[in-house]
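Troubleshooting log. The previous run stalled partway through. Resubmitting the same two chains, unchanged.
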Amino acid sequence: MAENVWILGIKMTKFGKHPDLDTVDLAAQAVHGALDDAGVSMGQMGILAAGNLMGGGLGIGQAIQKQVGQTGIPVYNVSNACATGATALRTAVMAVKAGEADYGLAVGVEKLAGAGLLAGGARKSDENVYTPSGRYGAVAPIDGRIGTETMPGVFAQIGMEYLHEHQYGAEPFELFARISEKNHSHSTLNPLAAYTKKMSLEEIMGDVMIAYPNTRPMCSANCDGAAAAVVVNDATLKKLSKEQQRRALKIAASVLTTDPWEEACQVLPNVNTLTRNAARQAYEEAGVGPKDLDLVELHDCFATAELVHYDNLGLCEPGGATELFESGATWRDGTTPVNVSGGLESKGHPIAATGIANIWEVCHHLRGEAGDRQIEGAKVGLAHVIGLGSACGVHILEKAA
Amino acid sequence: MTKQIPLVDYLVLGDSPHLVAHECTSCGARYFDRRNACAACFATDFKDVDVPTEGELRAYTIVSFAAPGVPVPFVAGLVDCGGTSVRANVINVEPDPGHVKLGMKVRLATNLAGTDDEGTEAIGFGFEPY
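Second attempt completed without errors. Output:
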């Protein structure tokens, strides 16, 4: 643990009206200013904490990284209303204090002046005249005209890219549909799953097509839900009851990564490298390997995503995801049960809850409390989530000795 | 002559329509959006480069469900243009798995994206098999 944490560099921009600067422009000015003031580079940062309340979008931290440096470090997007900036700094301080980074970067940014949107020229309200705006100088919405940004389409491409890279010869649709079949089958044993209906391969393939090859049941189920966890340190746990100590699960690894820059990553999100990095760090931290895992809850936001994560999490040899699946290994009675909860496709995906809910599933088995769907003798499990933008969380849990 | 404007500023119209990328002069990383710095090496100097108009389809999906106003189905894909990846629709082809294949050779083509109240045409692009 670090003794003191210091402010090495700091910068604020000239506050005022900046109609020609978007949120990330302002943040980049502040970030570059702080790094220059400190005499260090983005490459040395070990953690980024970022706050922005009004901007919308998926993650201000990731948006900033794409414009100042994607180095794969953990990013925390924080929010506490007007206390957001202090919260960002507090987060960076905690990480440095905990010894998780030598240098941390905190940034807070807002565009509140007038309409706040970057738009070139004046547009009369009753006229529609093409005016380039935004970082691509677009004159009209591009989704649907230049590719797609919708999740089912993005993840369909991610799965298809894997098949292309590894020269898969057979029909992509059926392969991915059978992954979905597995998860829907698993969910019949999970009373907490949003959907507990078994679905045949024909039913899955015959259902409404959303973005080929993902049909509706192959997409994560939108539903309501929440999950919460209490964590405690060793010293405090030792003072608690025998029962509490028996049921406590060790967090053998807790890792967060973002996507380091690679060619194409700002064109089609790359969910592979950041997962591989997170998995590698997690296995090292926990001192276990993929073969030691008794169960895995991974991020099947779409059936096409599950396949690539077999490879990314090292559950198979590189390029071997289709063979792994075809062998039956990832069914609940296989050597590496994946998504015995039903996964995001069937258990559901209330977005912010999922990252703790899938850890709940792993813990449930490690405690021997999973009833009908118990993976016998489970001692070690891995939970994985991906947030597009992107971020990857990997946790490895172990049963108390 | 009808006034034309590209749908996005990285599409250059004219006799030989093509895409232009901002290339980092330090490391060669290429981007299509306005930059603050290079995400790969943090440098802040870029030059514009032409992207090859021919490429290979590395990934695709056929979107059947989209936001209101977006015509479906359409094929969205990732095209590898001589080492530069481009996000685009695959156009001038039947939008079904029988006609779109991973690895297929495609080339840039322009299309009409819309017309505004002054009669200006927005010209978009896609990649068509050849």
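Takeaways: Chain B has one domain: 4-129. The mean pLDDT of chain B is 96.
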